[in-house]
Amino acid sequence: MAAGEEKNSDFYAVLGLKKECSQAELRNAYKKLALRWHPDRCSASGNSKFEEEAKKRFQAIQGAYSVLSDANKRFLYDVGAYHSDDDESEMGDFLGEIAMMMSQNKPNVSPLFRLSGSVSMYALIN
Questions:
Q1: What's the pLDDT at 114?
Q2: Would 108 be classed as within a structural domain?
Q3: Which of 22, 68, 71, 102 is surrounded by the most beta carbons within 10 Å?
Q4: What's the CATH code of the domain at 7?
Q5: Which residue range forms the structural domain that includes residue 71?
Q6: Residue 16, in any domain of the structure
């Protein structure tokens, strides 16, 4: 699959999954498809067109799984902010850190800052 095609493909569709799939479903779909389309396994057919198709599909399966199996990359992909080029640059590290912070359930904030509404000075001191 060409670099331009990879950016436009839907990783969930490549693996035959829905966006809400679990990690176990993701892993099972990957294993099943990787075994089916592995180029070494498909080379036994002797058909060069089939071998080339298997190679392209296997690369697409590998690419989809590498993104969706990583929680940070999957989060970025789901919100439309993931680009495979970012993996090779410092921007990917930065976006990964942002994704990690955004995906945390509870903010790590001092109890004083969690208070809302009017607070007396006594409550702030104690």
A1: 52
A2: no
A3: 68
A4: 1.10.287.110
A5: 3-87+97-103
A6: yes
Q: In whole angstroms, how far apart are CA 65 and each of 69, 81, 97, 100?
A: 6, 17, 20, 19
Q: Structural domain tally of the chain?
A: 1
Four-residue CA torsion sign, 19, 23, 28, 31: positive
| Rounded Cα distance, 126 and 124, in Å | 6
> What's the CA gap between 102 and 93, in Å, rounded?
14
| pLDDT profile of the chain (126 residues), mean per 10 | 51 95 96 91 76 91 94 88 67 67 60 53 52
In a domain, 117, yes or no: no
pLDDT at 89: 55
Residue 10 lies in a domain: yes
Gap between the Cα atoms of 108 and 44, Å rounded: 56
Q: What angle do CA 44, 46, 50 make, to 5 degrees?
A: 95
DSSP alpha helices (H): ranges in 15-86?
23-37, 39-42, 48-68, 71-78
Burial class (CB in 10 A: 0-12, 13-18, 19+), 5: exposed
